[in-house]
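Let us work through a complete example step by step.
Step 1: write down the sequence.
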Amino acid sequence: MPITSITTDPSQLTLTAIGDFPVSVERLWAAWADPRQLERFWGPPTWPATFTRHELRPGGQSHYHMTGPKGETSRGYWFIDEAEAPRRFALRDGFANEDGRPNKDFPETRMEVVFLATPTGSRFVSTSTFPNLAALEQLVAMGMVEGLTAAMGQLDGVLADLRDLSREFATEATVLDDTHVQITRVLRASLQQVWRAHQEAALIRRWMLGPDGWTMPECETANHVGETYRYLWENAADGSRFGFTGELLEQEAPWRAVTTERMIGTDGPGTVNELTLTPLPGGKTRLTLVITYPSKELRDLILGTGMVGGMETSYARLEATT
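Step 2: predict the structure and record it as tokens.
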């Protein structure tokens, strides 16, 4: 049985959605924790959602937009205050401007989602609490109940799909728009292991090699904001070399790092890479890398080099290294 009820309680300033499903609590949690699965039910069918950032952890953030039938967009954010996988999470939910900042013209709500085991599977109870009655009435008038009903009605199909987190490990690239590409990979390694593999030169040299036949003779890491890194690869067959350099712009260890990246020896604009790591049940970690390109042409050029296949080879080595 999918969504069983969506109700409002003006006296408590709440809107509550309840859904029952014939799957485990862990499977139900995974549908909310994985942005690719979350996208398939968070937006109504005519307004599908795209998450460009999703960190279901205390202190994490999620940024998304919904695209309407005529190409119009509506943006939103989550600020995660609490998360106890796979039992519950609590967050602040609101509308966002084009730059991703909170849109103060609309109220921010607090949403708590609790996952419970039942005799037939599992249940989620999502409770949104509004700051005042006017805020509740405003969002209900905007169609929040109808939109949530249509959106959550898709969750049954997501859970019935056998392509869940425990079965998908291959590196995937999703083109978000003309200048943004999102890389995802579920790794059979813990959060701390994956973070260390991106921080320690000795480990980086063992896995970040792309296709067979390459070595990394130079590996200078950036472990503090403002530091620069330098990676240089060499082909064992012909001695040819190439490399990248960049600066560490932001870091929240062991969850997130933002860096610039530019090919050594070139003067053109480079990319900005946002790495996010999310722990998953069973000692796994979801790696998400959002790459911002300076142009669509450069995006297509780099994707056409076989980048994704090389990354998959490297991530498979990372699993063997940890």
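Step 3: interpret the result. The CA atoms of residues 54 and 62 lie 4 Å apart.
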